Amino acid sequence: MGESVIVRQNSEFETEILALDPHDPDAHEFYPVDDVRYVTPYGMLLAGLGSCTAIVLHTYAQHHGVNLREVELRLQYGRVFADDCEDCEGIEEYKEQIEEEIVLTGELTPQDRRRLFAVSRHCPIHKMLTGGIEVQSRLAEDL
Question: What class has domain 3-86+93-131?
Answer without folding.
Answer: alpha beta
